[in-house]
Amino acid sequence: MNPVFRYAALAAMLALAGCSSTARAPESAALGPADLAFITSAYQLVQFDIDACSFVRKGPIEPAAMPAVDKVCADAATYKPQLRALAAQEGVTLPNTLPFDLKEKLVSLSYHPEPNLTVEFLRDEISSHESAIAVFQGELREGRNAAFRQKAQEALPVLERNLAMLRAALPTGTAE
């Protein structure tokens, strides 16, 4: 086997080993599966929103959608440091990569999709908000960590309002 190929394969394996799409906590942490699902989903939603906002703000956005775009982007910027602090307080290592489905949506946005960028952004945001709401509700039902439950309870109405704004901004005839 070619030594260069061996080193390249080793480097690729090491790079993949450093990537994590889920939050991790030490064994000693008082966190259950719902808590880790919550912090993972919350952080990934925020990161996805920030990344999606960077694409959508470069492209042609329909004026009627701008209030929803601005609100989602501002909320993501607000919640990211809060989630980082909450995770650090509980000893949680946050995911350092998005799951495949969200990466796929970002790639699609980067190519200014059809029918248009506004519709694609709104559809992607609606889908990611719906998923996050389900996980946040799961945290409220099953979470063990009081700080995580409190953050879920605080953020859930924001997600629900944003989801309503995103749906209302979707142009007529462009169903989810």
From TrEMBL:
Q: Could you tell me the superkingdom of the organism this chain comes from?
A: Bacteria
- Is this entry keyworded Membrane? no
| Signal peptide interval | 1-25
Q: What is this protein called?
A: DUF4142 domain-containing protein
Write out the entry's keywords from A to Z: Signal
Q: Enumerate the spans annotated as DUF4142 domain.
A: 35-167
Record's keyword annotation contains Flavoprotein: no
Q: What is the lineage of its organism?
A: Bacteria, Pseudomonadati, Pseudomonadota, Alphaproteobacteria, Acetobacterales
Q: Name one Pfam family in it.
A: DUF4142
